[in-house]
Amino acid sequence: MAAELPIPIFTSLDKAFPDIETAAAQGARYDSVVKEYEKRFGHKPTFIARAPGRVNLIGEHIDYVLFGCFPAAIERDILIACGPSQPGSEATAQDGATRGGVKAENLNPKYQPQSFVPMLKSASAPSAAEEADAASTVHAEASWHLDIDKRELRWESYVKAGYYGVLNRFFASNTEHPVPVDMLVTGSVPSGSGLSSSAAMVVSSTLAFLAVNNKLEGITKGQLVEMAMENEKRVGVNSGGLDQAASVICTPHSAIFVDFFPRLSAEPIPLPTPRTVPRAVFVCANSLVVSDKVVSAKIHYNLRVVETLVGARVLALRLGQQLGPSERPRLREVFSRWLGSPELESSPEKVKAELLRFLPEIEKLRPSPQGRKEGELGVTMKEMVEWSGLSEEQFHQVYLSWVDVEAEYFQLYKRARHVITEAIRVLEFREVCLRAQAAEGDLPEDTLRELGALMDASHESCSKLCESSCSEVDQLAELARASGAYGCRITGAGWGGCTVSLVAEDQVESFIAKIKAGYAPYKELEGEKLHEVIFATKPSSGAFVLKLD
Ligand code: NG1
Ligand code: MG
């Protein structure tokens, strides 16, 4: 239901935020980006597209195998002031006037101004670069092209990624010209920290191009999520839809339970607000280890995508499921086939019960210890190909031709075990929150401990089975627990980035002081600098467009 709502378009900020204080506090940022836009481009912007980052409370590395997650939007966001550019401006140079040229600037001087003009290509003749493009399998019909360098992380790649979807959805027939655009970007989501600055960039960019081209009408939140997911793949990470769904669909005061099977759906769920025991808040703490997901994708993120896909295939075969050589089911689909009845998936409660029954089947992926290094649960490429029942050539075609990955051992068993146990924890987390909602605030403190324990177990699984943590993040999580958090876990893709801790509201200050004292990289940080890296966050509103007059 939440996914079927239209994209909110506001004409004033007090309608955009849940309370007058937030609207007033945010107002200054909006005013200053408008003023700066006028100064740089010599005309007023017509819209501000806004998309928040997110904190994933639980459910890591399971969205791309179609299991549900539990994120909330955070207050930190990306704003893009935008409008049609004037004749003679840089965006209109080199056919930009008729081909939707773009002049994109960023308030952060670290990010250089960029101009680019999309190319219109005939759909029947993709270029060699497009053929080699990992995402071109998704967009075989695409006729617009923008150069995105996947070997390097460039800020404008995210702007281009957002534009791609808009061009190919609305301007592929070439009966109408895309409008040339001037845009000014500013953001408060730290990049590479697991709070999803990338999805906030892609969602806000997609929204900005939709708005300037007058294409917002009739687009639902779910459609925007799907566009932003496809768009983000253009940057070279084969991600699921967790971040985009959180950034688009979330509402203030609630997290969402977002599921991806059989289709995208989202259920806003208020976080427990006890009356009798201290309220709890979520505190994000940045490990300050920056994970460059695009550059390290082949040994980290994309490798997890491939390991879970191959694991799903092997499991399907070992469960006696029939698979064609080119089929590439995800773990959720294998689970669903194993169940055999859509009835059993009609509610999250039923899915949880069935997942508990399914869990022992994962043992079918455990390799026999014979001829293996002590404790090694992974398989070599050669074994993996054998297990898949495919020829080497077929295996390459289905599992490797669209992605670059590198490993000595592929951990099919550990990853699948992480996925199924994490999917169960998400559903348990959801149940605890719903129980708390039904109790209307009369909660035993155990409710918070239950949530905390699920977060701790999730961290343990991310660290040991998914292996998406790192020593600094593990240390921060330990420290958070020792500093009084009900629970703490890594949030986001990992290999650095942030933890999220559940902390009693009246203890946030002492909690932060303890972390500052115990985590060496924070020792020198004070005031605003400290607040940049460790802060309590309230569930905020999802993406919207502000129409300026
Ligand atoms: P972040 O932390 O934003 O890079 C990534 C993926 C998600 C999800 C999480 C792990 C992108 C855009 N997002 O998030 O889809 O898989 O990792 O749970 O790559
Ligand atoms: Mg990201």
TrEMBL record:
Region (Disordered): 87-108
Domain called Galactokinase N-terminal: residue spans: 35-84
A GO-annotated cellular component: cytosol
Pfam family, one: GalKase_gal_bdg
Enzyme Commission number, as recorded: 2.7.1.6
MF GO annotations: ATP binding; galactokinase activity
InterPro entries noted in UniProt: Galactokinase, Galactokinase_CS, GalKase_N, GHMP_kinase_C_dom, GHMP_kinase_C_sf, GHMP_kinase_N_dom, GHMP_knse_ATP-bd_CS, Mevalonate/galactokinase
Recorded metabolic or biological pathway in which this protein acts: Carbohydrate metabolism; galactose metabolism
Nucleotide-binding among keywords: yes
KW Transferase (keyword) present: yes
This protein's UniProt keywords: ATP-binding, Kinase, Nucleotide-binding, Transferase
Reaction(s) catalysed by this chain's protein: alpha-D-galactose + ATP = alpha-D-galactose 1-phosphate + ADP + H(+)
Biological processes annotated in GO: galactose metabolic process
Residues annotated as domain GHMP kinase C-terminal: 444-519
Stretches assigned to the GHMP kinase N-terminal domain: 170-248
Family under the similarity heading: Belongs to the GHMP kinase family. GalK subfamily.
Protein name: Galactokinase
Organism: Trametes cubensis
